Amino acid sequence: MSGTFVGMPAFPEAARAALGDTQLRHNLAHATGVIRGKRAAVVGELEQAGIWEDLRLAGAAVKQRALDDLATHLEELERTLTAAGATVHWARDAAEANAVVAEVARAHGADEVVKVKSMATQEIGLNEALEAEGIAAWETDLAELIVQLGEDLPSHILVPAIHRNRAEIREIFLRRMADVGRPAPAGLTDEPAVLAGAAREHLREKFLRAKVGVSGANFAVAETGTLVVVESEGNGRMCLTLPEVLVSVVGIEKVVPTWAELDPLLRLLPRSSTGERMNPYTSTWSGTTPGDGPQEVHVVLLDNGRTRALADETGRQALRCIRCSACLNVCPVYERTGGHAYGSVYPGPIGAILNPLLADPDEPDAAARAQTDSLPYASSLCGACFEACPVRIDIPEVLVHLRSKVVDSHRADRVPKAEAVAMRAAAWVLADASRLGLVEKASGLSGRVLSRLSRTTLPGGRAAAGRLPGPGAAAWTGARDLPAPPAESFRAWWARTGGGSGEPATDLPSRTVADAPPPTTPYDAPHPVAAPAVSPQPNAAPGRVPPHRSDDNLDAPADPTGARAEVLGRVRTALEGVAPTPEPVVAPVGTPGSPAEVVDLFAERVADYRAVVERVGADDLADHLASLFAPTDRVVVPPGTDPALLAALGERAVADDDLSAADLDALDAVVTTASAGVAETGTIVLDHGPGQGRRALSLVPDRHVCLVRADQVVPDVPDAVARLAAAVEDGRALTWISGPSATSDIELDRVEGVHGPRRLHVVVVEDRA
């Protein structure tokens, strides 16, 4: 990959243009400020509980454990996905990944696909590749739709259209929607709720007719073959559930070793990205499920430079990234320049390290190389990004490392850069004391002259040198106050005062660096090793090899293109000498309250998401359920629903006899039970067993009424992950729901009800006997 958008200038030039856009700077300051505030509130809850930093350590350790034995986990993921009915493909680069998606679409006669928001598919240029094959790729995330219709580029990981205001979005919808589908309403206003409603209607017809869906994945669990997508609007659920065929393009770094280790990541990602305890929707699925969702599933495991990053001992930590955008929202450089200045799908601090790490070092395009080389310098090295990163990527460390690589790559240039010339001159001066003395005298003379002529005095009374002429110096001093050189050097002061004693000192010896003796203690003692960013894990016991790593237990999968063998070979070469960590990471947990307190907290947190929540006795449930619907409402009920509830609904109940998506769209509501409720996050979880229905049932109707027994409510995410492990092992898909579908993609104004149900009604059923 080139790592950059075609034709984008190097960061300094692009940043200069962005700084002149006052509307952009206003939008960025508002958006990043709001997101920082929301994140601080929900992170503060865990800081107060004393577990946030330990949770960060656990999340980093999970991702690092996956990377340290990546080949093993990828092979296990391939095996479990295949056993679950998925077809696994391997792609060395963007071209191979795009070819797989296009081939699947052509095989099903599809001339269009619907897409979940996916940075991996943006990275490989999938939309453009499909367009070249005569296949339209429709972005379904609201912000991505705005970017696509506006023929624009994304500028933020979380909010790609952050640079657009509501008036611009209205104009884009009015001008472009009719060209690609259902037109925008003639009386469209710029209210965020109205704009979101127009997007809902425009995309609804595409969801209902699409044969093929395309997604990425936030995580891929090797142990169970489970893919995970975290989203807010419900467009992800639409793409993952309604089409006949699903293709997921997954970076090889997305692997998580075990189902249990998903826990800390599910707690870290929403808090660090949207500033919520849990995103409205989290979908997990393992291959295919008869009668529920796509019946043909393809997974493309993508390298595209990731093994290059993995081979860099300092830079490989960047592959721990979970794409939360927390580093962007605290970065003073990003806040002032925006995402387009980085020239890539990955902007901000993480983009400044990830793009150079993924990029081909033999890139023939000089402009692309210059753009990539500029990115490690797009930082003040303030360190705020490391403090915000939920998986403790030391971005400043990697930036400095990459800067050194840029410098090293230009050492053999025929025409050296001005900076290199200056450094060589400084080295020549500093290598000899007599030369240094002459320069000090000249500097002192210039300092005395400037002190008399300067019109600017710095705090403390020192004169400023003003703006200097010449390339580099003029730009640097034009934006900074450069103090005038001191009238007397330190060496001269020491000789004159005897180091402050008042007695003149003897002349300092003059010698070159080569004459200097070797350093003595304490400076020649070994430097202390910095504490690792991730808590160390125990090494594997001698001779202990998990059964799944035995070649005897692994049938060699088909590898018609050789991509599988090459990617796994690259991974093993990159990790040569790295010891795997065999034991799963255990994440910290909070202190739960009593069962009654847990249910109280659950009801409170569900209401926080603007869902309706009621607590009803079991004996009163049937009558209460009947009272929730108008006589003319048509309510779909899944197989396994309690007969007493069916009787209470009467003729309003519609059985799910393989209803089509269009049939479901015409109904008023759905009633389901749940498998679990999570008190800390206000989440209900469906495993789509009896009474819960297939995934489309709780997605397409406009209102979802969910019945949760009080004894199903658990304190926090770790408890839910453990409770649901058996369902995942059985191959069931899970849907985690936290409030109605929602978006904040338009000027960060939250709008409930985008593509999923616009109303969520949770009934907590209590045994009051």
Automatic annotation (TrEMBL):
Pfam families: Fer4_8 (PF13183), LUD_dom (PF02589). It comes from the Bacteria. GO terms for molecular function: 4 iron, 4 sulfur cluster binding; metal ion binding. The keyword DNA repair does not apply. This is L-lactate dehydrogenase complex protein LldF. Residues 459-475, 522-542 have a biased composition (Low complexity). Residues 318-393 form the 4Fe-4S ferredoxin-type domain. Residues 60-87 form a coiled coil. The keyword Electron transport applies. Keywords: 4Fe-4S, Coiled coil, Electron transport, Iron, Iron-sulfur, Metal-binding, Repeat, Transport. PANTHER family: LACTATE UTILIZATION PROTEIN B. Residues 74-302, 665-765 form the LUD domain. InterPro entries: 4Fe4S_Fe-S-bd, 4Fe4S_Fe_S_CS, FTHF_cligase-like_sf, Helical_ferredxn, LUD_dom, LutB/LldF, NagB/RpiA_transferase-like. One of its GO terms (biological process) is lactate metabolic process. The lineage of its organism: Bacteria, Bacillati, Actinomycetota, Actinomycetes, Propionibacteriales. Transmembrane segments: none annotated. Residues 459-561 are annotated as: Disordered.
